[in-house]
Design a protein that fits this description.
By secondary structure, the chain is mainly alpha-helical. The chain has one domain. It contains five helices and no strands. α1 packs antiparallel against α3, α1 runs antiparallel to α5 and α2 packs parallel to α5. The longest helix has 32 residues. It starts with a helix and ends with a helix.
Length: 149
């Protein structure tokens, strides 16, 4: 496999993952904001449960990590823009684990009548989703720059 093909495949999966994250931040999050707090408290655990079982969601977020290992072994870090993009992808995923997962857990533990706490968690989730989408988008841009040179 050529380096260009390997980078193109990594870019495709990273773009698919970034697209999913952007969809969540720009379409699904506003829909969650329209829900009353009790409905949000029921919806978010269901969303999480379905997301972790989704072959698409898990695949597009996992394939780049798995593929990075042989990429770095074979091609090292000779393409700095591409490596920077992979680093941003890793940062976006790490941000998700640090920022989003605790929110999912807290919402699952809250009762539907804890309106103020649910409202605050929803606000935090919106911010976390936007940060994650922005970093994911930057990762795709950085990786794509490599193809311009």
């Amino acid at each position: 496999m050529t380096r260009t093909l390997a980078e193109a495949l990594l870019l495709i999966f990273t773009t698919l993952s970034a697209g999913t994250v952007t969809f969540v931040a720009t379409v699904l999050q506003p829909a969650m904001n329209d829900l009353d707090e009790a409905a949000f408290a029921r919806f978010l655990p269901s969303l999480y449960r379905h997301a972790v079982r989704s072959v698409y969601a898990v695949g597009t977020s996992t394939v780049p990590f798995v593929a990075m290992i042989p990429y770095f072994i074979v091609y090292k870090v000779e393409h700095p823009w591409f490596v920077a993009g992979l680093a941003c992808f890793t940062l976006a995923s790490t941000a998700s684990k640090i920022m989003n997962l605790p929110i999912y857990r807290r919402v699952a533990e809250l009762k539907s009548d804890e309106v103020a706490k649910l409202r605050e968690e929803r606000r935090k989730l919106q911010g976390a989703n936007h940060v994650r989408a922005l970093i994911s988008f930057v990762s795709v841009l950085l990786m794509a720059v490599q193809f311009a040179y």
